[in-house]
Design a protein that fits this description.
Elements lengths: L13 E3 L37 H5 L11 H15 L9 E6 L2 E7 H7 L6 E2 L4 E2 L2 E2 L4 E3 L6 H19 L7 E4 L9 E4 L3 H4 L2 E13 L2 E9 L10 E2 L2 E4 L6 H13 L3 H4 L3 E12 L2 E13 L13 E8 H10 L5 H7 L2
Parallel strand pairs: 2-7, 10-15
Antiparallel strand pairs: 1-14, 2-3, 4-7, 5-6, 8-9, 10-11, 10-13, 11-12, 11-16, 14-15
Length: 341
């Protein structure tokens, strides 16, 4: 399943082609809340379990606030954005990862030390070939000329480093490119992507229903056994974009696996924008782009998870979704503020 909605998960957010969050909310002022059962923390690792019950998520006050309180209420969202800005001060600890004169990623100095035992795969700063300096960046050995050769060689390194250095290996490949749609230099194990700082892409989809003229969102609660962000809130459908599949087909595939949405419905998903973010956490440098979709579902549709990655689903009014974002550690603002419209 895809990226979880968790505080301090995302750092720099850029919104593209998306409609404003407020267009999906009622026109009158936001409701207010006065308390929450969660204490704010500056950061959480993806391995931390921060589980909750649905009562925690939907038991938010629906009391009204007057217009004078609107700016104070919105400040709660701004505070979440500030908490999501993490790691930019540590960028100097990373070296560019260069393939064919293109920067494709960033590798932490400490992780570089783990790679030095593989001199037949990587070239490191200050090393020389043909008498010329390579500069302060990491590159692949010039003997690795084809995408297949590079995929095999780097895959061997990932395998040798194992779970101790790169936890959560999935045997799923991500394309390594300089930008979306650019030529693929090689493919890399998904779990290794943040350790090499490559751009990774995913699809996230809001499934919504209109009830009595009001929009409601189907929300998923991730399985407590998930390696990443167990027990947390997520979109109805979300997933990484692996090598060899386009965005629309990936949405259709994830719809079936994660929510039991048949192709006859999922083909109607509409692209509404994209969110890009970066986050530095130790040796991990996440530089991801999420392609966001909306799908209007029938009132009688009930999602059913088929891959074991979702514990349960709830249909929640958009107003209450906004409250969850505003008041708790279940910080889904980083994704939904762009794609919820």
């Amino acid at each position: 399943m895809g990226t979880v909605c968790c505080i301090s998960k995302f750092a720099t957010l850029n919104y593209v082609r998306s409609r404003p969050f407020s267009s999906f909310l009622p026109s009158h002022p936001f409701p207010s809340t006065t308390s929450t059962n969660f204490s704010l923390a500056s950061s959480f690792s993806s391995s931390v379990t921060l589980s909750f019950t649905w009562n925690d998520a939907i038991g938010i006050s629906e009391s009204q606030t007057d217009t004078q309180d609107r700016s104070r209420y919105l400040q709660g969202f701004f505070n979440k954005v500030q908490l999501c800005n993490r790691g930019s001060e540590k960028q100097s600890e990373f070296l560019p990862f260069v393939v064919e004169d293109h920067i494709v990623g960033f590798i932490h100095n400490g992780f570089v030390e783990h790679l030095r035992g593989f001199g037949d795969v990587f070239v490191f700063p200050k090393e020389k070939f043909n008498g010329g300096p390579n500069g302060d960046f990491v590159s692949l050995h010039p003997m690795l000329k084809t995408a297949d050769e590079r995929t095999s060689a780097v895959g061997y390194v990932v395998q040798q480093l194992g779970e101790e250095r790169i936890p959560g290996i999935r045997n799923e490949l991500y394309p390594v490119t300089s930008s979306f749609g650019a030529p693929i230099f090689f493919s890399l194990e998904r779990a290794a992507a943040p350790y090499f700082g490559i751009k990774a892409y995913g699809v996230h989809m809001n499934g919504y229903v209109e009830v009595d003229g009001q929009k409601h969102l189907w929300i998923g609660k991730r399985s407590d056994t998930k390696q990443t962000y167990p027990g947390m809130l997520d979109h109805l459908v979300a997933g990484g974009l692996p090598h060899g599949i386009d965005c629309q087909e990936n949405v259709i595939k994830e719809c079936e696996e994660e929510a039991g949405i048949p192709r006859s419905l999922s083909v109607k998903a509409i692209p509404v924008g994209a969110v890009s973010y970066m986050d530095i956490d130790g040796y991990r440098y996440k530089r991801d782009v999420l392609f966001c979709y909306d799908l209007k579902l029938p009132k009688d549709f009930i999602p059913n998870n088929e891959d074991g990655e979702v514990d349960s689903f709830k249909l929640i009014p958009v107003r209450q979704v906004a409250e969850v974002i505003h008041t708790s550690l279940l910080n889904i603002m980083d994704i939904w503020i762009s794609s919820v419209a």
